[in-house]
Amino acid sequence: MGLRYRVDHLITMKDEATVVDRGVVDIAAGRVVWSGPETEAPPNDGPEEKLSGLLIPGLVNTHSHNAMVLFRGAGEGLPVDRWLTELIWPREGFLTPEDVWWGMTLGAAELLANGVTTTHDMYFFPESGAEAGANAGLRTIVTPPLLTGENLTRFGTWEEQLDQMASLADTYRNHDLVTVGLGPHSAYAVPEEPLRAVAELARNKSLHIHLHVAEAEHEGDTIQERTGMTVPRYLEAIGILDSRTVAAHGVWLTSDDIALFSEHEVGVTHSPMSNGKHASGMAPVIELRSSGVPVGIATDGPSSHDRLDLFEEMRAAIRYARLRTGRADAMAATDALTMATREAGRVLGRDDLGHLGEGARADMVLIDTATLGPIVEPDDLITHLVYSGSPDLVESVWVEGRQVVNSGIPTLVDVEKARREVADRARRLAESI
User: Fold this and answer.
1) Where do the domains of the chain lie, and which CATH numbers do they carry?
2) pLDDT class for 151, splitting at 50, 70, 90?
3) Structure pTM?
């Protein structure tokens, strides 16, 4: 049987970002059946629930490494290349499946409490991450990483890693909360032969590809010297770029790279807080979106940006866009909210995420609006939500129609136990190198 929610204020993101006063959302079997103004709602003979506040679609985190709560705070002041090679990759060589399970459990609980209902995750021991995310009630798009290196031989040869990816995709083919893609780390960290094999596997199994592209200024220098091509042009040449490709960061893209992404319908993730912490640069978000390239807001990992907070990322995205262009009108609050919801779904190739239109997944967030004001016009709520919103205002969260946060507290996770487990495991990993 379906359930009708009546709410003071509603943002559906079905089309553009607008606020409906006295809204209705009907859900059944984990999907939205109808949403809109109360005055236009169809007859209803089923149960109803009245909500106080603002109901919005669940936020969509387009790029993260959630279990890296295990390394939160480590490597302060290092640029991203040294942070990875000197600190993160050596510690990751000592990871266990249980480490990842607990890291993902805590990360999932934080995301849900922060109003994020979907995360696009790339991390080791993906079975542990998938199960931990699902157990917490988080919608998890898992992209097992393909990465080779001196400290990472225990994860197998690249051929073995690809076989494991294919098997995992088959395992979760029809899962309600878990979807699987492919996660070759980057063109600078994965040789050409395995990248070509990833492209072939993606085509054969209709899987999407998630990789880091142009995050740091000089990460493509070796490829440029060897091939004469930028990283995006190189990825096109070896068959990686198409509409199922998600490029994380895209900070140092040329105008030709942007045109190439537009041509191949590549989606881009944008993590302004992580980029700022590592001094990686300011991504050309305005140029990407103007060229038709969808851009989704992302937190990156909770060790490269220590908070899993998309409200903070939305504000940073606006400010970086305005600073980069020198224009106060370069990006509006409605743009940032769109990139954290419906456009984020587009980046991931999921037209059922990031909105509350008919057929969408019933992933919803209830915001306490008591401190969001003053409200002169209904759409003032969007400005207040983006500029003044925070996880503290997240009252309730539903994923697939199931309530997973109540009164700001995740209902399926023992958060205090997860924190203790992560603290103990983080200490052991730090002492391992």
Assistant:
1) 3-57+353-410 (2.30.40.10), 59-347 (3.20.20.140)
2) low
3) 0.97
